[in-house]
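Lab notebook: predicted structure, single chain.

Context: the supervisor wants predicted structures on file for every construct in the current expression panel, including those that have not yet been purified. This is the next one on the list. No modifications to the sequence; it matches the entry in the shared construct table.
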Amino acid sequence: MSSVPVGFIGLGTIGEPMAATLLRAGFALTVCGHTNMAPVERLREQGAQVVANPREVAAAGKIIVTCVPDAPQVDEVCLGADGIVHGAQAGTIVIDCSTIAPTESQRIAAALVEHGIQMLDAPISGGPARAATGELAIMVGGADEVFAQARPVLDALGANVTHVGPSGMGEVVKLVNNTILGSLMIAIAEAFTMAVKAGADAATAREVIMKSAGANFLLDQWLTDRMLKDNYDPGFATTLMQKDLGAALETARALGVPMMMTGLAYQLYELAEGQGYNKDDYSAISKIYQDAANVTIATGKPRKG
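Prediction complete. Output recorded below exactly as produced.
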């Protein structure tokens, strides 16, 4: 078992398997719940210590991993009334795996430093499956020496851990990643809806494209269990993709960078939320196109009537 005590806050779809991975790697782990206590109980059965709030998690851990939806939640768990800042000793490291605006991450990191607490912004990519196997891609912003101290925890969580620069740069690179993914998913939805409406078989089209210039990660790793099975069970939620695109647009506005395609993508994910797909996997954006064209990508059959 590792001698470094670790805390984990944010036991959602990705956070829970990340925490379980740390337990399997031998870390003494302390967790706390929020509204859904089921993940906490499952982790307790695997050996985690359970406490009441982030302050108590911080008191028990030397390195604290946070993985929550957005900047207000990061602020609350770090700086709130029962936050990490009130329980951590000087020298504690926070590894924030949330995807938030870089300016917000830098603000929270600066507030923690005033209390002797260091923070790395370390957003993740790979989804729940790779969280469960410790094979996430992790892009890390922060000081070199802090990154070195946190490396054992990061290496347990990810197969591809890269220090990309100072505070905030992990968030910048993650927003680049999700800006590409968000727009690419829409392009796939449009193209495959057209193909199937024309009479092509979606699985066959995918096989051909994977050997062509249009090959990409989503077609290779994501679509076979999603659009091609008409399955949009929760994975990476539509509402989270919209939130990340919003953070990218906010960052771009501050920098004076035009992002017209991302702006349209943001609106389309907002439309998907309005259609009730907010908790579905973000590949549910395809249902907007399938419904409009009255065709099902997975089967070629009409959606209605």
